[in-house]
Design brief:
binds pyridoxal-5'-phosphate, 13 strands, four-stranded antiparallel sheet, seven-stranded mixed sheet, Aspartate Aminotransferase, domain 1, alpha/beta, Aspartate Aminotransferase, domain 2
């Protein structure tokens, strides 16, 4: 089987390629304006402010938030989650979370457990990585300050039912890590009773790396993680309380945020549901094909279940690192092996410590590419 032109199946890490309009927007911005918004009153600075404002409005609209000042841009979802976890949790608080969380959640939580005296309760997961929302009320108590949920697992593709979780949150706050789902699955902040929604810009939203953010439910206040120049209230030596300036100290990533806005426009024009259906189709092909290959095991929900475009596999007698290496070097297929920064999730589905080979199709992949990777996996299996 000849090596193919590069096939990118690592969209769960970051989406590639980016839509042409995202590339064009970034090039135009870097060529045409200076990128420091809100600092000066000259036309370039005002143009940069308008770029950020337009992106904020688009983001608010995209996530069903009526007030764009409640959208805060950060450098990725990890930073957004850190703002939420460090800002909301106090000694004695209990956090209810799942065994499917990314280290962007687990590492700050484990740190706060050690240094701030919070406690963790972990919801049980099924063998495919799903949680049962009915388990939530049984675990809530008067100390439960926060429920934090990974909407779409970056290991198994399993999807959490946010509406059902929101209805069962009792007096706790609901924080959602939407790193993998934003741009593909519906995410209406108010409808799902989400208090803190964290997203990253460079995956399903088609923006560049270095972008992300969070949306805060009205009335929810928490201290910022960093303080400094905001371009507003410069007479004060204290951090302004103004939203969103309070959380956006330092010159922002105008270039990236402009690119993210172009990604959101691309989704709007293409249709989020069109994107979801294409990814669902490619994922189904992948899952059905993989189930025919002797020795391959899929770790996650089956084809036909409501799930995301993340397929984790192991092959009997082959390490996952070997599989990824062979796919890349011999066949030109880029995928990711290992623990995917989510050891807890691999423990939950029984693939720790060896991990899995993760294939994550995106909107720009084709059926032919999926057929090619299946043929490559079959050949690797035969050649063992
Ligand atoms: C579920 C989940 N949470 C958090 C992250 C971290 O994303 P970022 O590196 O953009 O902060 C990822 C990405 O790998 C993820 O899949």
């Amino acid at each position: 089987m000849p090596k193919s032109p590069p096939i990118y199946l690592d969209n769960a890490a970051t989406s590639f390629p980016k839509p042409p309009e995202v590339v064009e927007a970034i090039c135009r911005l870097v060529k045409e304006i200076s990128l420091s918004p809100g600092r000066s009153a000259h036309r370039f600075s005002l143009a940069a402010s308008r770029v950020i404002f337009a992106a904020r409005e688009l983001t608010a609209d995209f996530f069903g938030c009526p007030d764009s000042s409640r959208v805060v841009f950060t450098s990725n979802v990890t930073e957004a989650l850190n703002v939420g976890l460090f800002g909301l949790l106090a000694p004695g608080d209990q956090v209810l979370t799942t065994g499917m969380e990314h280290n962007s959640v687990m590492r700050p939580l484990r740190y706060l457990e050690k240094t701030r005296g919070i406690s963790l309760a972990i919801l049980p997961t099924s063998a495919t990585g799903a949680i049962d929302p009915d388990d939530i009320p049984k675990r809530l108590n008067s100390k439960t300050r926060l429920i934090i949920i990974n909407h779409l697992s970056n290991v198994t593709g399993s999807l959490a039912d946010l509406a059902a979780i929101g209805k069962r949150k009792g007096g706790a706050l609901l924080m959602v890590d939407a790193a993998q789902s934003a741009g593909v699955f519906p995410l209406e902040m108010e409808a799902a009773e989400i208090d803190f929604l964290a997203f990253t810009g460079h995956k399903g939203l088609f923006g560049p790396t270095g972008t992300g953010g969070f949306l805060l439910r009205p009335g929810l206040k928490l201290p910022p993680l960093k303080m400094g120049g905001t371009g507003s209230n410069s007479e004060q030596e204290e951090q302004p309380q103004l939203m969103p300036d309070c959380y956006e100290s330092g010159t922002p990533n105008t270039l990236g945020i402009g690119g993210l806005a172009a990604g959101l426009e691309f989704i709007r024009r293409t249709g989020r549901e069109t994107i979801r259906l294409k990814e669902e189709h490619l994922t189904r092909l992948l899952l059905e094909g993989a189930s025919q290959i002797p020795g391959l095991t899929v770790h996650g929900p089956p084809a036909g279940a409501e799930r995301g475009a993340v397929v984790s596999l192991t092959m009997a007698g082959r390490s996952t690192a070997d599989l990824a290496f062979l796919l890349d070097r011999q066949y030109g297929v880029m995928a990711r092996a290992g623990l995917h920064c989510a050891p807890a999730a691999h423990r939950s589905v029984g693939t720790f410590p060896q991990g899995a080979l993760r294939l994550s199709p995106g909107f720009f992949n084709t059926e032919a590419e999926i057929q090619f990777v299946l043929a490559a996996l079959e050949q690797i299996g035969i050649g063992k």
